[in-house]
């Protein structure tokens, strides 16, 4: 049994989500190869070769992969699966927007029914995944010869990233689609830790009233060494950009500490944060459902509570 | 241009679901059903493209049991022109659904298929990607903007790191994110009009698609509940608890 992990990476390096995915692959068992599709990705390849437990890093360094075009990455994986028949029993990627677009696309090319967002590996064929916004956990068994899976990264530890010594193999490109042209990316420029891997997340909801009040949460996040997130209502209202959204249809986070400020606690929001280790809720409505999942609830006006908390942390 | 919008009938987003006692799934008897919210956004976008003069017809398709036409009617009441019901009692997986939608899209020669990015019951987030793959048409996943232009469509995608703009050719397959639009409510006259709009009925067999399951649901469980927490009354108390009790700061 051999598993192909599709690496997610940025211009600056390997995404931590790749390490969680390797850890999930290790639980499936068998040998692990990592595929890197990118351009000028020598440093990323070297980093991947150091991940503990990786046998081989396959790298396709090509202009087709300068941007993450789903079609091009999928074509590469498909050609690999076709040319190395029966070599890979599993293909796994993180359940990020990258992996969520890529894996079903690739699976359909290979006539496989993909499995989304697994939170537990039971055995090589059987996995647990949350459904209904995490209100139920479904244990599913794949009957396909090859399993194609996205991994809920917060449910798995990070694979150790320094002690490995994988072999590196260059592979041929499978070409680029002419149906899709990359135009541009507008990326959030945050000096804070990445939301999905931060140890602390401070999130604001509709109760924040305006984007102008978010610097207050940014300051708190900086004091705690954390990232800033938001509810859908705060994103829809334009307080903060889309990449801040935590929830069923946004990002899933599970930090050591999650601070929900002016967030009511709708099931769709809880779906993205209820596996956090410790949850703090600040809300002036004592009936707010968020208090039902909070370890520490503070029934207070956030415009009083947040400055008080900042002052206390400064002491 | 013709637009096809696949929609799914799901348990209403406001319902708190309960796992069945026999662990085979969740309780669906006497539970309020609705159109998947992302599909409503898809219908709305199709209608806006039509209203802007870029499309002549919006067709709704839904695969599922006998009650599905209710959901199709909801789309017709919003303003879509006609429906197709793929009737089956089978448990459907995204790959099989994508294969059936492909047949319809080809029969109807549609130029654009707009799907929801995710069904809020199974949380798959797969069907649109699979459809684009098997149709060999460009994929625009998680879009928050779409504009018709000479080259096809200019789209903006919501991705984890921010926003991404792509230019894709026509015909295309796109999936909707939350911020694409705010769906309209159906007016009473339109609800009445929708009753007369045609819904064609077909089956997986007639479409030549094998819907045998590739995934076996072994069991469905309720996730462990979180332990009850405590209330604090001051910043000092909260910081003390986080430092000395929870030890997370
Ligand atoms: C298909 C679908 C997908 C969705 N996906 C997501 C998702 O991924 N993520 C998500 O978050 N939501 C999602 N939602 C939306 C979700 O249902 C809720 O509408 C949303 O989470 C509400 O955001 P909120 O808590 O900020 O706003 P509200 O529910 O309006 O709550 C605001 C809270 O702030 C409190 N407040 C107000 N002023 C103050 C103050 N001065 N001091 C203290 N407290 C104050 C209020 O008491 C209230 O509890 C989705 C919904 C649907 C239908
Ligand atoms: N039974 C169905 N009939 C028609 N369209 C569907 C069906 N199931 C899913 N879809 C479409 O695929 C989208 C994504 O669903 P999923 O891949 O299940 O998350 C939905 O928003 C619909 O547009």
Question: What can you tell me about this protein's structure?
Answer:
The complex is a heterodimer of chains A (315) and B (249). Chain A is built from eight helices and 18 strands. The longest helix of chain A is centred in the N-terminal third of the chain and has 14 residues, at 70-83. Chain A has 315 residues and is an alpha/beta fold. The relative contact order of chain A is 0.12. In chain A, strands 7-11-6-1-4-5-12 form a seven-stranded parallel beta sheet, with helices on both faces. A five-stranded parallel beta sheet of chain A has the order 15-14-16-17-18. Chain B has a nine-stranded mixed beta sheet with strand order 9-8-7-10-6-1-4-5-11, sandwiched between helices. A two-stranded antiparallel sheet of chain B has the order 2-3. Chain B has helices at 37-51, 68-78, 94-107, 127-135, 188-194, 204-207, 235-245; strands at 2-6, 9-11, 33-35, 57-64, 82-87, 112-116, 139-149, 152-159, 162-168, 172-176, 199-202, 215-221, 230-232. Chain B contains seven helices and 13 strands. With 249 residues, chain B is an alpha/beta fold. In chain B, helix 2 crosses helix 5 and helix 3 (94-107) crosses helix 4. In chain B, 48% of the residues are buried. Strand 13 of chain A pairs antiparallel with strand 9 (162-168) of chain B. Adenosine monophosphate binds next to helix 1, strand 4, helix 3, strand 6 and helix 4 of chain B.
Furnish the topology, listing elements before pairings.
The complex is a heterodimer of chains A (315) and B (249).
Chain A: E1 2-6, E2 9-10, E3 13-14, H1 16-28, E4 31-38, H2 42-49, E5 54-61, H3 70-83, E6 90-94, H4 97-109, E7 115-118, E8 120-121, E9 126-131, E10 136-142, E11 147-151, E12 167-170, E13 180-187, E14 200-204, H5 214-224, E15 227-230, H6 232-236, E16 257-261, H7 267-270, E17 278-283, E18 296-299, H8 302-314
Parallel strand pairs in A: 1-4, 1-6, 4-5, 5-12, 6-11, 7-11, 14-15, 14-16, 16-17, 17-18
Antiparallel strand pairs in A: 2-3, 8-9, 9-10
Helix pairs in contact in A: 3-4, 5-8
Chain B: E1 2-6, E2 9-11, E3 33-35, H1 37-51, E4 57-64, H2 68-78, E5 82-87, H3 94-107, E6 112-116, H4 127-135, E7 139-149, E8 152-159, E9 162-168, E10 172-176, H5 188-194, E11 199-202, H6 204-207, E12 215-221, E13 230-232, H7 235-245
Parallel strand pairs in B: 1-4, 1-6, 4-5, 5-11, 6-10, 7-10
Antiparallel strand pairs in B: 2-3, 7-8, 8-9
Bound molecules: flavin-adenine dinucleotide and adenosine monophosphate.
